[in-house]
Amino acid sequence: GAAAAPLPEEDCMKLNPSFVGIALSSLLAIDLWASKRLGVCAGEGSAWGSARPLMKVIEVSGHGIPWLLGTFYGLCQSDSSAAREVLLNLLFALLLDLVMVAVVKGLVKRPRPTHNKMDMFVTISVDKYSFPSGHATRAALVCHFVLRHLVLAVPLRVLVVLWALIVSISRVMLGRHNMTDVLFGLLLGYALYGVVEHCWLSPATAPALFALW
Fold first, then answer.
1. Which of 60, 177, 199, 204 has the most CB atoms lying inside 10 A of its own CB?
2. What is the number of other CB atoms lying within 10 angstroms of the CB of residue 18?
3. What is the DSSP letter of 176?
4. Which residue has the higher pLDDT, 121 or 28?
């Protein structure tokens, strides 16, 4: 009989996936499975549904709006030049965090987990996307910033680290994010801190900004 027509190249690729493709697909499947299993506070009927109100309080503690408003208020009330410098850079860090997370979410457009209950505090359009976790990014950024620029006793430093970890873990427990969203968010927050340190605003580098205060 007549020889069979050759398969299109894209079908051949599907029938013979690369090792990298198989590995990524497997990791994605594991990520989705583990994230769903760990979403123990995703709804009132979940395994740890009674802890959901506490998780939502933790969620608010890592939200961008309270941090922005609190930093701006402190900046306006401060009468110390050193404190104003630190707070101005913290404000810059928080704004940079919001912009970068929004850009990455808009590019990746990964949907939130299917078991997520969309009842978050003050959301914007990009919040329908999951990757990366803005709370995890902000927690890592603020934690590193506070430990670096504030003089704190050891117990308080431990509390700051614990807060960042709990905020990050709560994102998966509430079903807001997958594990990889949180892990990448922590890495991004650490990287953004490096950017803030490199572009540190001071009276010498940004005199116009400090003149406003």
1. 177
2. 9
3. S
4. 28
